[in-house]
Design a protein that fits this description.
The protein has 265 residues and is of the alpha/beta class. The chain has eight helices and seven strands, in the order E-E-H-H-H-E-E-E-H-E-E-H-H-H-H. The strands form two sheets. It has a five-stranded mixed β-sheet with strand order 5-4-3-6-7.
């Protein structure tokens, strides 16, 4: 069913007492935003169109005008700000819930931002903090928290994670490094970013060492596919011989040809 606008008119009858001149009236209906004419449905539509469908407010105003509803961009902007203020308690509750997690996936992405007066857009950043415990059968539901910033400085994630304690899964962005200076936050590196470098080398020169690295990372991925969704397993007891064999085999990429391997890469 196509969307449509409707005007809801509230008639509030006033009654007065002839004996005492007391005047009573029906209570004012609740508004989604203080002294706002827009209903909750229209406010939600504007917000979703702007932030999820990437429709700037001036384009929404043009669309509304074709339907016979004239709304100034400044009015829409005010409604968006008031909607954000009304939703702030939910945002605070979500932030507290996400930041209470033990592990988070953290990343950022570029966002084009309108810059009136300069004739082009500027680049902002959207920082994303995701909790997803489904791969290891965690008990907490998935959740995502977003923060906007006008720049890509490391002070942004430091401010967002000031209360967080645990492990964050991140890429190699240097702005995260100060987070790992103490014992409050531990780093979990991203295998996809590591693999990308070996892939580029192998694609460029056919390095056998890079190919071996890709194969080993592939083995890790296959293990991950096998255990994905399973809960933690109880620790197993290894024999001293197995521990020693593992110690000798770990980190032996190109073993027996280490000097030559560096040259090949």
């Amino acid at each position: 069913m196509p969307g449509r606008f409707k005007l809801i008119r509230h008639v509030r009858a006033k009654l007065s007492c002839r004996a005492c001149d007391t005047v009573v009236a029906a209570p004012t209906p609740d508004h989604a935003i203080a002294r706002g004419r827009a209903g909750a449905g229209l406010l939600a539509h504007i917000a979703v169109s702007k932030y999820d469908d990437h429709l700037p407010l001036y384009r929404q105003a043009e669309i509304f005008a074709r339907e016979g509803v004239n709304l100034e961009t400044s009015t829409l902007s005010g409604w968006v700000g008031a909607t954000a203020a009304a939703l702030q308690p939910l945002i605070d509750a979500l932030a507290a819930e996400v930041m209470a997690s033990d592990t988070l996936h953290v990343d950022d992405t570029r966002v084009p931002v309108l810059a009136p007066g300069i004739g082009k857009t500027k680049t902002g950043r959207l920082w994303t903090y995701v909790r997803d415990e489904r791969p290891f059968a965690g008990c907490r539901p998935p959740a995502a928290l977003f923060f906007y910033s006008p720049d890509h400085k490391g002070e942004q994630p430091r401010a967002h994670l000031k209360e967080f304690r645990g492990v964050i899964h991140v890429d190699g962005y240097a702005g995260f490094n100060e987070l790992f200076a103490g014992n409050r936050i531990a780093e979990a590196g991203c295998w996809a970013h590591v693999r990308r470098k070996f892939f580029d080398v192998h694609a460029a020169i056919g390095s056998s060492i890079a190919k071996e690295a890709l194969d080993r990372i592939g083995q890790l991925y296959r293990v991950e596919e096998t255990i994905n969704g399973a809960g933690p397993r109880p620790p197993t007891t290894s024999t001293p011989a197995a521990i020693e064999a593992h110690r000798r085999g770990a980190g032996c990429l190109g073993r027996g040809h280490r000097t030559q391997a560096v040259a090949q890469i």
